């Protein structure tokens, strides 16, 4: 989903002709498209053979699926990432170090695990409580080491939970954060499995694409040796989400949220981070949404093309 | 080296008969001994087939070699560790989860990279500046995830730099920390490639073996989800080392240290941690040497059998 929106953004900037897209499942595109499993030997080499100067690595088995299928999560999220990095290293060696592409890796705030400080900064320990978070944290470590050795010029960005995620729910345990906004805006009932006091860290799909585009252009020399950054976001409780929905779409929308507490999801979510100190990413020019209301308005504009006031410009 | 001393300690406790030892290079032992490459498919399964209840995983390509040979470092330190963990997971699954051994993994303070706080605690980011440190940090993440999933009961201990390391110098860039004590005590010249102000974190081989034995017996339930701990140590500058040597062995020993600044080693060492807040490990019962002088006396007692006053008991 983020990949599709990134392609739209890059195409809009006149960079569509130079794009090669890759996914494990078949997809429609007007761009050069390759469908393969990156964790299969040889596939990463095939992708890197054309020596792209900029590589976005977004691929992942999502958190719920990586937890349910241990082997698949490690194979795709860890081995797939490592094979990609290794393929770049081989091209780099073939070219005597002259081929050194920018690699933008989407990590996740799932690299962090409770207990947390009041706000998590970029010096806080990666102690994930899911296999998905473990795989992302390992990806970050590999990215740093391969960059330090000069095999590529990497940057890892830890995306907040993307909200409002368009389309159908996926297997992520975080699905309800989007569902309680998306479904009511479409006139449908949504299930809320956790209490309203649950607090979390959000970015709109539009902000996430902005992070990726900015990461592709950033002067990585200014990052020093620490090439992974937590992205800025909006800190909001589920109660804040519902209040924002009420302000944007009225009481009748908020009434479509049905409480159905689920102890399993409550337990998973209780181990997730709630709030960040993203001052490092802000200092490097990454920009968040300005409020949860704006996150909802962006969803209306980008997905439902409904008239809504434009998002407030950030001061 | 630590492995050999651990075997001596366990044998002294009457546990020798139950030991199986493994190394990649041939070695002499009165115990059951297996020589193989853990990173070769099938070898880890062979080792775990007998279902040992306690596994010490000490193996590693050292820092200097892992930096010089990228492929070997990742193959042995990352793939070897992962194959061992996977082999245990398979036995665990075969037994319906009933086989769940204690795994003691020796990590390293090389998982940390500059810039540092005044003292590094167990919540500080793992941002290694070497491939060796990266491989150890990944091992820690895997250990935590495999333990969380119930495949084994793991604990990772980050050893301080071991000093005084007996025998010949190895390829570790940290070799001089031991060399400037070991060689003068044997009446030989030692080369000091860095300035006396370089500060670092040390444990004697005897203390390191104590950490391993304690980790094997610890109630891991009390650790919570964070199963990796920085071990307590002695914080000392190179100047402190030389002063301790002078106090223990006299001026004639200290005069055998020849200054030969090496900018490459200076640069590597400048990225290493210097001081720790090991209060978490102390709270869990791990005990350090009490001073650098005692570290020297332990070397005299354990390696040279020279008469030396016994180490001061820790208050």
Describe this structure in words.
Two copies of one chain form a homodimer. The first copy, chain A, has twelve helices and eleven strands. In chain A, 42% of the residues lie in helices and 15% in strands. The radius of gyration of chain A is 19 Å and the shape is globular. Chain A has helices at residues 2-12, 43-48, 63-68, 70-94, 131-148, 175-185, 205-217, 238-249, 251-254, 263-270, 279-283, 292-304; strands spanning 20-23, 32-35, 54-57, 102-108, 153-159, 161-162, 190-192, 199-203, 228-230, 234-237, 257-259. Chain A has 315 residues and is of the alpha/beta class. In chain A, helix 4 (70-94) runs parallel beside helix 5 and helix 8 (238-249) crosses helix 12. Chain A has a single domain (2-304), classed as 3-Layer(aba) Sandwich (Rossmann fold), CATH 3.40.50. Chain A has a four-stranded parallel beta sheet, with helices on both faces. The first copy, chain A, has a three-stranded mixed beta sheet with strand order 6-8-10. In chain A, helix 5 (131-148) links the parallel strand 4 (102-108) and strand 5. The interface between A and B is medium-sized, with 24 and 24 residues.
């Amino acid at each position: 989903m983020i990949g599709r929106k990134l392609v739209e953004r890059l195409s809009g900037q006149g960079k569509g002709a130079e794009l090669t897209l890759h996914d494990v499942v078949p997809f429609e595109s007007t761009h050069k498209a390759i469908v393969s499993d990156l964790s299969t030997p040889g596939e990463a080499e095939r992708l890197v053979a054309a020596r792209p100067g900029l590589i976005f690595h977004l691929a992942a088995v999502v958190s719920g699926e990586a937890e349910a299928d241990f082997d698949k999560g490690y194979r795709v999220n860890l081995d797939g990432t490592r094979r990609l990095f290794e393929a770049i290293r081989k091209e780099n060696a073939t070219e005597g170090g002259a081929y050194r592409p920018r690699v933008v890796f989407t990590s996740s705030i799932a690299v962090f695990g409770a207990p947390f400080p009041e706000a998590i900064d970029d010096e806080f320990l990666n102690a994930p409580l899911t296999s998905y978070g473990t795989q992302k944290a390992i990806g970050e470590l590999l990215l740093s080491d391969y960059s330090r050795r000069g095999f590529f010029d990497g940057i890892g960005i830890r995306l907040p939970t993307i909200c409002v995620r368009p389309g159908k729910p996926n297997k992520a345990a975080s699905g309800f954060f989007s569902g309680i906004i998306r479904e009511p805006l479409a006139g449908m009932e949504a299930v809320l499995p956790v209490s309203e006091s649950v607090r979390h860290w959000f970015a709109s799909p539009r902000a996430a694409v902005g992070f990726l585009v900015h990461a592709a252009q950033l002067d990585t020399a200014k990052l020093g040796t620490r090439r992974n950054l937590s992205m800025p976001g909006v800190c909001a409780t589920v109660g804040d989400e519902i209040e924002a929905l009420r302000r944007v779409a009225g009481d009748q929308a908020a009434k479509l949220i049905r409480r159905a507490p689920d102890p399993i999801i409550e337990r998973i979510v209780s181990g997730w981070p709630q709030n960040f100190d993203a001052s490092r990413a802000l200092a490097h020019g990454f920009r968040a949404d300005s409020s949860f209301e704006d996150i909802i308005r962006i969803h209306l504009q980008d997905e439902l093309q409904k008239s809504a006031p434009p998002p407030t410009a950030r001061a």
